Amino acid sequence: MTAALHPAAVHRSDLRPACKRKEQEHGKDRGNTPKKPRLVFTDVQRRTLHAIFKENKRPSKELQITISQQLGLELSTVSNFFMNARRRSLDKWQDEGSSNSGNSSSSSSTCTKA
C-alpha cells in the first residue's frame, strides 16, 4: 500500500511549485497597475443617497443618471451605492432573523446571490 501512495505524494509535491508560481505571476500583474483610491462620499452625497434609498431601493437608470449629475458622481458609483445598500440591508435583515432563530450558519449561507 505504501508503494501506491508514494507516487501520488511525489505527484502532489510536483504541483505545489506550479501553484506558487501562478500566485507570484498574479502578484506581479497587480503590482504593475496602481490601486485606485477609495471614494469617500461627502456628507451631502451620503445623506442624499441614503434618503433616496429609504424611498426607493431600486431607482431606475434614468433616476440614477439624474442623481449622479446632481451629486457630481459617476453613474457607476451611484449604481454601486444602491447595489451595496441593498446587500447591506439584506445582510442586516438576515442577521436579525438568525439571532432570533439561533441558527446563524444556515441563514447566512442560504442567500449568497443578490
From TrEMBL:
Domain of life the protein comes from: Eukaryota
Pfam families per UniProt: Homeodomain
GO molecular function: DNA-binding transcription factor activity, RNA polymerase II-specific; RNA polymerase II cis-regulatory region sequence-specific DNA binding
DNA-binding annotation, residue ranges on this chain: 34-93
Entries under SUPFAM superfamilies matching the protein: Homeodomain-like
Listed GO CC annotations: nucleus
Domain Homeobox: 32-92
UniProt keyword annotation of Nucleus present: yes
Name of the protein: Hepatocyte nuclear factor 6
Source organism of the structure: Sciurus carolinensis (Eastern gray squirrel)
